[in-house]
Amino acid sequence: MDSRRSTCKEADLLLALLRAEPESRPATADSNPIPAGIDWPRLLALAECNRVGALLYRQITAMDADVLPQEALADLREIGSARSLRNLTLTGELLKVLRGFAVAGIGVVPYKGPVLASMLYESLAFREFGDIDLLIHAGDIGRASSALLGQGYGPAGSLTPGQEQALVGFESELAFYHPGRDVLIELHWNFRARHYYFPIDPQLVRSRLQPAEVMKAPVRTLSDEDLFLLLCVSGAGHGWRFLSLIFDVAALIKTRPEMDWQEVSRLADRLECRRMLQLGLFLAHDLLGTTVPPGLVDQARADRTIVSLAREARDRMCAPAGEAPRLSTQASFYLRACDTPWAAVRFLARNLFAPTSRDIAWISLPPSLCLLYFAVRPVRLITSCISRLISPRRQSSL
Fold this sequence. Notes:
Elements: H1 9-19, H2 40-49, H3 53-62, H4 70-104, E1 108-111, H5 113-120, E2 132-136, H6 141-150, E3 154-155, H7 161-168, E4 173-178, E5 183-188, H8 202-207, E6 210-214, E7 217-221, H9 224-237, H10 243-255, H11 261-270, H12 274-288, H13 294-301, H14 304-316, H15 327-337, H16 341-353, H17 357-362, H18 373-397
Parallel strand pairs: 2-5
Antiparallel strand pairs: 1-2, 3-4, 4-5, 6-7
């Protein structure tokens, strides 16, 4: 079954342009190079909201053909230049932060963002990213926070050091922001986020790191197999709402022919994320024409749920620019991608009952009473709902 069926000509052409080999014209579904009546501003808007504007510019400039009108090409060139400048800024900031952590003796593992761009793409400019992800030991949260504060970063929330320590038991990340440089850094101590649940042991991840380079600076990052599964699970958590997420999966397959697919499959079974793995492979194969392990994609094609989810992801490409899916829609997507009812219940329970940074910031409890945050959460939510109900009435009475 084909997930590419759509009435959106611009999305179809965008996919064809991204799939095309350099120095060739794109082959669209109807074999007509450029369909008539293309809304070029809409195509560029789709490329931007799917975070593939820079990739599209690379493809267009590599083709031996005048594919885009000159005005659209000029707009696309501007998109590519802006993305290149932003990526260089973020990459430079990553290297600066890594040096600061090294001086402080803090072990840190960069992944995704600039590292993924350096590993999988010909240039840092071709993969769009908006923040910096770092894996650290949970015990290093305090020292890492101090190191970032010393470099001009501040916590994205308003937590005290004691509340930050309480957060470690309930959440998976802590965000820091530098207002002068407009850079967001997320410190992760596991991969059990709110929008996805990837229960791999961080110690296992660290035991099989691989070397990589970012602007000729050596770093160590996730193994190909761990990274591939993380991309598939995270993509499901985002509802595969960006085409760039699928492009990352396709690029990892293409640039890593030595990938140990048996290990990937074994790990997916153990972590109960086989359907998410198959969905990521299916999307890369069906939308971008990526060659994937035949056994895995055949299993995906036979799963009606995977085919349905792939169509939903494909339809989001045609959504108006800036229109993000509702959180309930994303959660529903992820729940259907779960392997088992238990995995779905675990995900729901975590999001419904586990305290968040807002719950912890609402009231400060001593470490010995941190389990009471489970009781704080419903009280805060009820109080917040009551406040929202009362506020409009107060305003209308004025």
